[in-house]
């Protein structure tokens, strides 16, 4: 379980809390510096200790960040006077909302798992595939394709398909590089990194490099990508794409050194 018992109940050192939450120690130190999540106390060795109340507050911070709120706004909400408490989602409300999202994802995954399990068994048995089940899969793929086709011309789509066929490994490398970059950008934002700093500029350069790997300097291709992202921001974010906060951070970094 981790954590150490203390006068106020179970407590975690900053390193333990970072490990359990997936955050960095730097991020937790930053939260402390800006008064967002303060350790409950320090032990005899001077180590920061976080208790149950601090863990609950940290959860609220992370949940509100998922809703797109800035750290400054989150602090204002959580530190609001009792008379303004109604404006702050309670821990129960946040947990309930997250539960709804998780259950929705589980239902979708359960349905997909059932369909794929049946198709795999049928295909391996060589008895013919279930057409209705295949239609369900096609329907899901069609929804994605329709969104894509609404923003890219047939010529652009053909070019992308040709590029993937010719440079498959390079295309895969670009796609695989995004999660690490987005994680680094979110960590920089959480740590309060100045968009004009050298660190932010390096992130902006990596960001521009990956985007160039997609549009290859084609202004029309780039504009189509941006329109699709802006018009479907929630869906893009739900599938692992950048948050509006991350985009704003990179934009400021680019503008600072343009």
TrEMBL record:
UniProt cross-references to SUPFAM superfamilies, sorted A to Z: Putative DNA-binding domain
Top-rank lineage group of the source organism: Bacteria
SMART domains: HTH_MERR
Residue ranges occupied by any HTH merR-type domain in the UniProt entry: 11-80
Database matches in CDD domains: HTH_TipAL-Mta
UniProt KW keywords: DNA-binding
A Gene Ontology molecular function term of the record: DNA-binding transcription factor activity
Pfam name, any one: MerR_1
Protein name: MerR family transcriptional regulator
Provenance organism: Nocardiopsis kunsanensis
